[in-house]
Design a protein that fits this description.
mainly alpha, single chain, ion transport, metal ion binding, 85% helix, cell membrane, 5 helices, 131 residues, FluC, transmembrane
Length: 131
Amino acid sequence: MRNLLYLALGAFPGALCRYGLTLAVPAGTGGLPLSILLINWAGCLFLGWFFAVSPKSGRIPARVRLMIGTGFTGTFTTFSAFTVDSVKLLEGGEAGTALLYMLLSLAGGIALSAAGVWLGKRTMRAGRAAG
């Protein structure tokens, strides 16, 4: 039961951040869902970094990792909006934009996840060197 509380404590601000960014980021040119693309990219970078740092540090309890990793980042990012936006673009005759969106989402997400892991490893090395 306590895990559910930690999950909810992370999910609420994650959802609010995503909602706020969808309002703040203007729609992309040519129908590209720019806000969802940027949100998912940011989530990939952060989650890669967070999971590279958190298990190894021993300073972040498992429940806090659940709250931040699954709760916050899980509600901040959105695979379902990505897929629905892709289908809507295809149904609207925007096959080129849909393909671009899918490729940018997938390739960018993988690259940013890898960059996050790399940054996390550098963070850990810098922390060991300083301490």
